[in-house]
Amino acid sequence: MKKEKYSFEFERFESKSELAAEQKKVVEEAYDISLNAYAPYSNFNVGASVQLENGEIFSSSNQENASYPVGTCAERGLLAYVNANFPNIKIEKLAVSTPNVNYPLPPCGMCRQYILEIEKKQSQPIEIILSGKEGDVLVINSAKDLLPLHFTDEFLG
Ligand code: THU
């Protein structure tokens, strides 16, 4: 038996104002759309925005449902739309934000897996920028970093 360790490097900024202009833009879009999230059951608003390689930005929010499991996270709703409409345009950045907390909002496990699938498909890392209403912002280099020992199509044989 040998012990192994998983770790990854990421950047922590003390506020949104410290980000580069392109990063700030996509974070602001994610935050703005989160204000109109459809989250009447959890009252937890989430927004997600992507910046494509052509500079275009698309955004979405969580969409809940009276039948709770039917609801979808902001990230997956957005990525489904973007991958359906622009399957050959790479995603450079993905921002996730919320007005509900003052710390960087981490994507749920299912969304991490979803982001990873798109990242692998486009053969280019997606920069993931996590923020809340105020406070620290985390910049993560790749979906892979958020999902140790990840499952991909390679295991399907
Ligand atoms: N939510 C997201 O939209 N993205 C995440 O990564 C975490 C959770 C939503 C789902 C649900 O509508 C609400 O936040 C509370 O879990």
From TrEMBL:
Molecular-function GO term, any one: identical protein binding
CDD domains: cytidine_deaminase (cd01283)
GO biological process, alphabetically ordered: nucleobase-containing small molecule metabolic process; pyrimidine-containing compound metabolic process
InterPro entries hit by this protein: APOBEC/CMP_deaminase_Zn-bd, CMP_dCMP_dom, Cyt/Deoxycyt_deaminase, Cytidine_deaminase-like
Cross-referenced PROSITE patterns: CYT_DCMP_DEAMINASES_1 (PS00903), CYT_DCMP_DEAMINASES_2 (PS51747)
Keyword terms of this UniProt record: Hydrolase, Metal-binding, Zinc
EC number of the protein: 3.5.4.5
GO cellular component, one term: cytosol
Domain CMP/dCMP-type deaminase: 21-154
PANTHER family given in the database record: CYTIDINE DEAMINASE
Family to which the UniProt record says this protein belongs: Belongs to the cytidine and deoxycytidylate deaminase family.
Protein name: Cytidine deaminase
Lineage: Bacteria, Pseudomonadati, Bacteroidota, Flavobacteriia, Flavobacteriales
Gene name linked to the record: cdd
